[in-house]
Amino acid sequence: MIPYKTIIKIDRASKQPVYIQLTNQFIDLIKERTLPPQAKLPGSRTLSGLIGVHRKTVIACYEELTLQGWIESIPKKGTFVHKDIPILQQQKWVEKTAGKKSDDTGFAFKRSPVLDRKFPQDYTDDYMYVNDGVSDERLAPIKELSIIYRKIANKKNTLKYMNYGTTHGNPELRATLVSYLNETRGLNITKDNILITRGSQMGMFLASQLLIEKQEYIIVGETNYSSADTTFEFAKAKLLRVKVDKNGLDTNAIEKLCNKYAVKAVYTTPHHHHPTTVTLSAQRRMHLLNLAKTHHFAILEDDYDYDFHYNHAPILPLASHDTHGNVIYVGSVCKTVAPVFRVGYLIAPKTFVDECARLRRFVDRQGDAILELTFSNFIKEGSLDRHIKKVVKIYKARRDLFCKLLKEALSDYLSFDIPKGGMALWVTLNKNYSWDVVTKAAKQQKLIISEWQRYDAMDLKHNAIRMGFSCYNETEAREFVKRFKRAMQDIDVMESFG
Q1: Are 409 and 311 part of one and the same domain?
Q2: Residue % of the chain over a pLDDT of 90
Q3: How does DSSP classify residue 72?
């Protein structure tokens, strides 16, 4: 007889009901063939006495096993393991590890090398990171948003938003954003032109899937937002790269490519080019729009860091000048408020928006309607504008301090122009040094520089990366620069010893 008393283990401290614990252990015994097909199980009274549980617990376990098809009860004979349970083919292990799942699948699936990115792993809190330029979550207006969210959630008419809704996004937020974007960005859109997304990245993904067939061409900068590159490559696009200078994308180079290739789209971050932070000049903006009309390609305009401009008013987006339906405009409130709030938008002619909404249904059925309502109220009450004014002032001060500290401590190693806006610098390392070496030295100072190679997809050897400043207060900025300087000094010492 099977030694149930020693095999069965009941954890009284577990939140899982005892009969479920018992059920799962019987299933394991059956799968392992410890209990083979047609093996007779002890009666409920006998088993309860053996393992020290109430008889009703055993009965509930047997009922569950019967419902799942593992055992069967035969009148006047007893309870048996089902006769038709097949043998589960197990992989042979050198050493069996109980309860551990295989890391590999038992089936084939598509793997894309395009998705192989070395994102930073988590380190303890005393590590600091060189980031792309992210908002400081400590400045997020959590209290205001919480009050609005609770108020909305407690209203009876909110129940209608608890079910499935339109894939275009919450109608109230769409209407609010239409008014807000028309007023602040000079757009001329209606609700038919806007799709709510979970951020600009989702907008780019939807757009690229609809725009690009395999091996079709999209133009991007020689230096470009690496996540956009990945998105387009995943859509099987062929990337054509053009130079980026102090005036942004070289539109003359774009024109030459359009005369040679059937270009489907041009991707741009015109307000603050990612990663170099430069602004696309007015002349090039008009040139690009004219090229789009002539060559019938789409302009995928990423509204990157639009709200964060320090020297003068933000320059209106390309979408505000588009009269021929060539611009797809994507943006979000994630960076403005906090990355956790996944609320963004895609703006385009109605036919394209509707097709994006149809595709979105099979990617992410809809967004968070209550959160979208919250942001609708947050914008209408003027809270978003107040928040932007507050953080722009703080980020400008942080930019000025960060630039000052870098110049004072690291001018022998780094050079940069003070950006007019955004949340990061484009920092060039002295040619005598390598980011590969600097990355290793910085890690010893608990300063993480991750995936620096993505800033030079064309292997131009410009030796520059983005360096965010917005998430560091004064104390943190000083500590950041101190660690960076120690890393550079360590390199100098190592090199002096050959």
Answers
A1: no
A2: 63
A3: E
- Quick one: average pLDDT of 215-226? 94
Looking at the DSSP bridge assignments, the partners of residue 71 are 81
Q: Which of 149, 145, 171 is nearest to 160 (CA)?
A: 171
- Same domain for 444 and 357, yes or no, is no
User: pTM for the full model?
Assistant: 0.81
- Statement to judge: residues 461 and 329 lie in one domain: no
Which residue do the tokens 């069967």 mark?
Answer: 72
Number of domains in the chain: 3
Beta-bridge partners for 300: 267, 328
Cα–Cα–Cα angle for 450, 452, 455, rounded to 5 degrees: 140
pLDDT digit string, tens, across residues 114-123: 777 666 666 6
Dist. CA 297–CA 401, nearest whole Å: 42
Cβ atoms of residues 64 and 20 within 8 Å = yes
Q: Which residues contact 212 (CB under 8 A, 6 or more apart)?
A: 218, 232, 235, 236, 237, 264, 265
Q: How far apart are CA 28 and CA 15, in angstroms?
A: 20
Do residue 362 and residue 291 come from a single domain?
yes
Same domain, 351 and 456: no
In terms of domains, do 344 and 198 share one? yes
Per the DSSP assignment, residues forming a β-bridge with 197 are 344
Q: Are residues 229 and 344 in the same domain?
A: yes
In a domain, 297, yes or no: yes
Give the H or E element holding residue 251. helix 251-260
Q: Is residue 123 part of a domain?
A: no
Question: What is the 3-state secondary structure of 396-408?
Answer: HHHHHHHHHHHHH
The Cα–Cα gap between 197 and 347 comes to: 10
Reference 20, options 50, 70, 66, 65; nearest CA is 65
Domain carrying residue 481: 128-134+386-496
Residues 265 and 210 placed together within one structural domain of the fold: yes
DSSP for 297-363? Answer: -EEEEE-TTTT-BSSSPPPPPGGGG--SS-EEEEEESHHHH-TTS--EEEE--HHHHHHHHHHHTTT
Helical residues (DSSP H) of 130-244, grouped into ranges: 142-153, 171-185, 200-211, 226-234
3-class secondary-structure state, position 78: strand
Report whether 454 contacts 226 (CB < 8 A): yes
